[in-house]
Amino acid sequence: MDFNFTEEQEMVRDGLTRLVREQYDWDTRHGVIQSEAGWRPEIWAQLAELGLLGMPFSEEDGGFGGGAVDAMIAMEEFGKGLVVEPFVPTVVCAGGFLKHAGSEQQKAEHLGGIIDGSRIFAFAYAEPRGRFDYADLQTTAKKDGSGYILNGHKAVVVGAPWATHLIVTARTSGDQRDRDGISVFVIEKGADGVVTRNYPTVDGRRASEVYLENVSVPAEALIGSEGAGLPLIERVTDEAVAALCAEACGVMKVAHQMTVEYSRQRKQFGVPIGSFQVLQHRMVDMFTEYEQAVSMTYFATLKLDAPEKERKRAVSAAKVRIGQAARFVGQEAIQIHGGMGMTDEMAIGSYFKRLTIFDSEFGNVDHHMKRHIALA
User: How do beta strands 206-217 and 147-158 pair?
Assistant: First the structure.
């Protein structure tokens, strides 16, 4: 199998590397996440101008004919700079729902806005009691003439403070945990009855609690078939997991590099701590974990178009292995930096926080271990 990237993909990587290096240095990012806005719309506009927001979409849909590998490349570079702009919620999640199951009308209405950066989406799927189960829904969508009335509460909706639209999962029939009876809707965040409570997350991003109170949406808001949305949700979230794995690889690479550099500068007993063999071994172990994570990310990304069972097993295997690697690399980096590593004055603390939060997104290590075993 050829693991070499195309010339165009290498150009994308080089362009993003420069963007992150020149406009996403540590001090700038720290200032951005402390600001009231919490992100930079001008960076989002640059990503649109560079074609990155349209990269994974087909040319027929107005995109540039890329795919999951292109998203993987972008996410790894974003991870290196701890980029907070909502690429996964908007391009990977919302874009995934639209390109896999959106009607021609929905694609025409929304994809162009995603590609040019004017429409920003957040994916409202998690609920306070759901515990990684996409079928465990208390949010309901009841028929009202030709449309629907939505009621419910969605938790930790990443990117929602900046969003213009929401992708919402809701139960249209069946009991709370039935696999059937789940539907997916696209709604305007400013619609009547949508109430949000915004807050910063531990890793520097922004999220919202989203409350839906008798939100009326037309029939055209339904993505795909009514009541048959769970397989679509699982497909899109698997794509999101693969993208987040790539981001984690970028975070781990920089965390390892920072740790090696710090060990060369920090002195103890009159010599750099990097000269101590036990710390050298630990940093080699960090690098080994990172390399294995990269391999598993490639594996999961290349399996996204495989049959459902094969795709799920590959993605869960990657989430487990990279979740373990992220924890190890993050904790070792902090241990070698010492107490200062957890302060806001040192960048490594933010990389550690991002690696820690990674485990809880779209299912943690235990959840994906169980899913992988169940599919054996």
Answer: antiparallel
